[in-house]
TrEMBL record:
Cited InterPro entries: SecY, SecY/SEC61-alpha, SecY_CS, SecY_dom_sf
Main function: The central subunit of the protein translocation channel SecYEG. Consists of two halves formed by TMs 1-5 and 6-10. These two domains form a lateral gate at the front which open onto the bilayer between TMs 2 and 7, and are clamped together by SecE at the back. The channel is closed by both a pore ring composed of hydrophobic SecY resides and a short helix (helix 2A) on the extracellular side of the membrane which forms a plug. The plug probably moves laterally to allow the channel to open. The ring and the pore may move independently.
Record PANTHER family: SECY/SEC61-ALPHA FAMILY MEMBER
Subcellular localization(s) per the UniProt record: Cell membrane; Membrane
Annotated organism of origin: Mucilaginibacter pineti
One annotated GO biological process: protein targeting
Positions in coiled-coil regions: none
Pfam families named in the record: SecY (PF00344)
Keyword flag Lipid metabolism: no
Protein name: Protein translocase subunit SecY
Family statement drawn from the similarity comment of this UniProt entry: Belongs to the SecY/SEC61-alpha family.
Quaternary structure note: Component of the Sec protein translocase complex. Heterotrimer consisting of SecY, SecE and SecG subunits. The heterotrimers can form oligomers, although 1 heterotrimer is thought to be able to translocate proteins. Interacts with the ribosome. Interacts with SecDF, and other proteins may be involved. Interacts with SecA.
HAMAP family the UniProt entry points to: SecY
Transmembrane segments: 21-39, 72-97, 117-136, 142-165, 177-196, 208-229, 263-285, 305-325, 361-381
Length: 446
């Protein structure tokens, strides 16, 4: 306990880290306050107790309850994530976007601009569908085209503002802004879900013992998720020995830690964004809402929905790993620093070896993500309430674990760079591993 308070004191002593944490908390507070601001012309009393289930309930959880409250942030950041998916796919299929990806900072700025433009279009379409289907006539203080047009603009502006908050958190705060916003929305729903499940069990549906078993099982899933998220495959790298004067440089063996889940939380977020498409189509095109496949894909507990969801997660895991981990760049860096993998020739052979290792460890990582993502549906089938089942593994758990570990990693990096102890005396936060150093340098912990 003493070390814990000492660590908190060290965090507060670092001005840059202190400012970043305060900025992050203030930006998240703005988001949470905005999630309670109701759309103009909507009677709050009519939507305050509105319930959401299935995919709509999951979207409401990601939006921190804004969706069911008809808030100005009702659509959250999901349109921005959908736009990011489209732009990244265009980077593979369209030469112009592929060229932008290789142009460094200027190319990234242009891609971000395209993403923002596409976000506006996607948000506008979803806003029209939301106003037409989610806001009942009884909840409207006035009707007519003015109501739809006004709230379409407000919802679009709200999503753009949330997107801006996420970017500001990333730049001025600590952690990934978009992921933190989603995490805060999920955590905001946790106390209510926990209390609902407790009341349900203690009132006779299984008893307190069943509730305790559920909590123990949830803790087990969380622990296993952390192990997989932090799991790495180490590749030995030998650096050539050089003697300059009376000093020896290099000649030591280091390791490249390749993550089993290198893509982090992004594959499941991307897959979830695409799984909202059937629901959006049903809302925007009522005439096709009776389609059997659309109904099945919109059903959170259907096998069709969960099968497609799992496949998308596996595909996005490979896709996101491929665009974030570059074996050729890693091989070139090792060659420039006189490093090599024992038994593997430098250059193309090294890149091919690293790519093969990544492909092998990505498969079990992606399958694990898919299994955990569909656990809530299984939990619902065995009697867990739908609200609490969303936290019993699934998207919410992976996002919470991944985002918390990523944020802790960044805080620990700030501490270690300033010669303070990290957050844990034993064990290592994700990323706190010795990285291969260039010839003539010593490995540093990040």
């Amino acid at each position: 306990m003493k070390k814990f308070f000492t660590t908190l004191s060290n965090i507060w002593k670092i001005e840059d880290l202190r400012v970043r944490i305060i900025n992050t908390l203030l930006f998240l507070l703005i988001y949470r306050v905005g999630s309670y601001v109701v759309l103009p012309g909507v009677n709050y009393a009519s939507v305050a107790d509105q319930k959401s289930e299935g995919l709509v309930g999951l979207l409401n959880m990601f939006a921190g309850g804004s969706f069911s409250r008809s808030s100005i942030f009702a659509l959250g950041v999901m349109p921005y994530i959908s736009a990011s998916i489209v732009v990244q796919l265009l980077g593979i299929a369209v030469p112009y976007f592929t060229k932008l990806q290789k142009e460094g900072e200027s190319g990234r700025n242009k891609l971000n601009q395209w993403t923002r433009y596409l976000t506006i279009g996607i948000t506008a379409v979803q806003a029209i569908a939301y106003v037409g289907s989610q806001i009942t006539p009884e909840a409207r203080l006035f009707t007519g085209p003015v109501f739809t047009i006004l709230n379409t603009f407000v919802l679009t502006a709200g999503t753009l503002f949330v997107m801006w908050l996420g970017e500001k958190i990333t730049d001025k705060g600590i952690g990934n802004g978009i992921s933190l916003i989603i995490m805060v929305g999920i955590i905001a729903q946790l106390p209510g879900a926990f209390l609902t499940e407790f009341q349900s069990r203690t009132s006779g549906a299984g008893g307190l013992v069943t509730f305790v078993v559920e909590i123990v099982a949830l803790i087990g899933v969380v622990m296993f998720t952390i192990l997989i998220v932090q799991g790495t495959r180490k590749i030995a790298v030998q650096y050539a020995k050089r003697i300059v004067g009376n000093k020896q440089y290099g000649g030591v063996r280091q390791y490249i830690p390749l993550k089993v889940n290198a893509a982090g939380v992004m594959p499941i977020i991307f897959a979830q964004a695409l799984m909202f498409i059937p629901t959006t189509i049903q809302q925007f095109f009522p005439n096709v809402s009776s389609s059997g496949i659309l109904i099945a894909l919109s059903n959170y507990n259907s096998w069709q929905h969960n099968l497609l969801f799992a496949i998308l997660i596996i595909l996005f895991t490979y896709f996101y790993t491929a665009i974030t981990v570059n074996p050729n760049q890693m091989a070139d860096d090792m060659k420039k620093n006189s490093g090599f993998i024992p038994g593997i020739k430098p250059g193309a052979a090294t890149a091919s070896f690293i790519d093969g290792v990544i492909s092998k460890i990505t498969l079990p990582g992606s399958i694990f993500l898919a299994i955990v993502a569909i656990i809530p549906a299984i939990a619902s089938l065995v009697g867990v309430s739908p609200i609490f089942a969303r936290f019993f593994g699934g998207t919410s758990l992976i996002i919470l674990v991944g985002v918390v570990l990523d944020t802790l990693q960044q805080i620990e990096s700030h501490l270690l760079m300033r010669h303070y102890d990290g957050l844990m005396k034993t064990g290592r936060i994700k990323g706190r591993t010795a990285m291969p150093a260039a010839a003539g340098t010593t490995p540093t912990a990040i």
